Structures are given as C-alpha cells and as structure tokens.
Amino acid sequence: MNTKELESALLLKSNGMFDEALRALEPLCSSGQHALACWHLAEMYENGLGVEQDQLTARSLFEKAARSGDPWFRHSFGRYLERTNDRKAAFEVIEENAGLGFIPSVFRLGVYFENGVGTEKDVEKGRILILRAESEGHVFAARHRAGKRLRGEEGLLMRPIGLLRILYIALKTISIGRNDPWDPRLVN
Predict the structure, then answer these.
(1) Please, are residues 77 and 66 in contact by the beta-carbon 8 Å criterion?
(2) Do 116 and 125 meet the contact criterion of CB atoms below 8 Å apart?
C-alpha cells in the first residue's frame, strides 16, 4: 500500500486539480488496497468534480469502499444511498453498521426510525437510539435532542436548556475537531 501516492492524489483533489487527482486515484482504488481512494473517486463522480456526474459509478465506488469493512465507509455508503433516495437500502446498511456499534450509524438509525425512513416509523425506538448515541458523546445526536428542546418538543420549560445545550455542543465540537477531525463523534 503506497500511502505517499494516496496523499499526493488527495492533495491534488483538495487543490481542485481534479483531472490529475482522477488519474492518480483510479489505480489506487483498482488495486483494492485503498478504500479511501475509492471513496474520494465516488465523491468526484457523485458531484461531477473533474468528471461527468455519474451516480451509477459513484454508487459502485462507495460500495467498493464499504466492502473494505471500515465502519466509516459503510456509514458513508448508507448516507449516499439516502441522498439518492434508496431509503430502504440506506436503512439496511445503516442498521447493519449500527449493530456493529458504530455510533454515527446508531444515531442515523434513530433518525430513520423517528421519521420512518426506509422502515416503519417508531418514534420511541428512534428516541432510544438517539439517546444512546448522545450518551456516547455523538455531537449530532446531542444537537438533534437540543433542537427538540429548543423547539419545545420536550416541554416549554426545556427550551432554555435546549439553547444552553446548543452552545455547549458548538464548543465541544470545536474542541473535538481540533484534536481529531476524523473523530466518529463528528460524523453525521
């Protein structure tokens, strides 16, 4: 596995040199040793960065990255399926990943149950999953719950607590991001 080649390819992409990044990422992804290369290629095809937008290729590449077994890539594949309105498949991928204990997927599964995305609506099951993710320090779960309090969904007396929680979460997010921008607690 050549990490320097991957780093160079990602630098090209981050600098907007998409044609060069594409040429550098494709062989890395094809080798099967760089799920991250596949993920970045998928993002390029999904958004038309240096290539014609192609959702079939994007899906295939996101799925290839997910097959690496890394929970972050599996979660990302589920989110891609959600963005492309394949909600049943998104639910299945996220549910499996949540079952493996990946906290961002636990939160997302809670949101799916809460809103009936790809499954029957079950507000109580969704609430329990979101609380579990929040208890593990997941900032989006905490923000989700704080938003409900701020809107008065947990009672009008909880609105000020919701506001304070939003401020606390913003500070916590900055702190976590400074230490580790890839921390799973920051993954939506």
Answers:
(1) yes
(2) no
